[in-house]
């Protein structure tokens, strides 16, 4: 979400010189591709291994209850256990929800971290805690901009693109509370808000849409003339760096890599059917296409599914019946996650692509009741995170909660431990610091270590 003041006009008399120099380019490049591609200027010497690693994040906004998904407690008291039963996976002793049978059959290809714990109480501050490594502010009001750079921004800043012509960071659509903070908006992901399950899906940023290639060439000629004028009046050397970003923006607009990756209509119809012909299924398929083509991190925000009252995984008793909504939602999760795992393995990407399925919190192990309607409330002290691939040891559960699911019994994992694990997978050094808004050197993580069972 953006600030309520973002639509107010800005006095042109106060426009900074840097903005003036960028004005012609950014205004011309549909949605600011130049800002997005600016990340690559700090990544020229990235390690070779970092070029191959990528990550897909399926974000379950609202917070999926671990008691209905990946850490059921069949022997808990009735006020805790809920209505669902666990089923065995293909790994002895590892169980998950009965409504996730396709995932259960792939037990040796995923790992669960069942002991993640944090104290952030709300959706926005929990997202900040999990995505930045710094606890979010208690006040959850617009603008929903993070105080510290998130996983996307840090990876973009440090690593840049894996493949020229591909956006390194993509969100479908934007995750709440996402941004570069003091690393700048240039580190924000490339946004795809359109629904790829529709026949009219297109990504304006990667096509020439309403103008023909001859028209585009003429516009490039005019732009080059304007650039020459700007070079003549600019003595700071800024134009030299802008030229590089401009060329990469043009390459992405006119090149084949991004266009082919986003052309989901060229995918085998049987694979599209396997993912499901709905928004979340086709976004997950598009995420696989993007990381295979060269994107570094792609996130999918799990949207409302057909027949669902819920617009999120925020299953309060006061809004809807958690079990009714889970019975609608979980089969879709089962379909898309199992499809992603199978597809990633079929294409030999399991060592390089890490799939993460999670939300910003869980919900209370103890059931609540509102006028006879069951639900669960906000809870971050015990939550589960699902991972697959990334060359990590699979077929295991890291950590354990007690018989009621309300306390970590073994191997407490912090959000910073998760982030450290993901940074290590991507190839981001953990000792990096950036100057914050006040110029103070600030580490990307104040603490946390990669999860030893996964590395």
- Could you say what the CATH topology is called? Alkaline Phosphatase, subunit A
Supply the CATH class: Alpha Beta
Q: Count of DSSP E strands? A: 18
Q: Structural class of the helices, strands and pairings?
A: alpha/beta
How many helices in DSSP terms?
13
Low-confidence stretches: 1-44, 207-211, 235-245
Would you tell me the overall average pLDDT?
84
Tell the overall outline. globular
Task: Walk me through what this model shows.
The strands form six sheets. This protein has an eight-stranded mixed sheet, with helices on both faces. The chain has 455 residues and is an alpha/beta fold. The chain contains 13 helices and 18 strands.
Summary tags:
15% strand; globular; disordered N terminus; 455 residues; 13 helices; 18 strands; Alkaline Phosphatase, subunit A; two-stranded antiparallel sheet; eight-stranded mixed beta sheet; single chain
Write the layout of secondary structure elements.
Blueprint: H1 17-28, H2 33-37, E1 54-59, H3 78-81, E2 86-88, E3 95-97, H4 101-104, E4 111-116, H5 123-132, H6 151-159, E5 169-172, E6 190-191, H7 213-233, H8 238-254, H9 257-262, H10 269-275, H11 279-293, E7 297-301, H12 322-346, E8 353-358, E9 362-363, E10 368-370, E11 373-375, E12 378-379, E13 383-389, E14 396-398, E15 400-401, E16 408-410, H13 415-426, E17 433-435, E18 441-443
Parallel strand pairs: 1-7, 1-8, 4-14, 5-6, 5-7
Antiparallel strand pairs: 2-3, 4-13, 8-13, 9-12, 10-11, 15-16, 17-18
Helix pairs in contact: 5-13, 10-11, 11-12
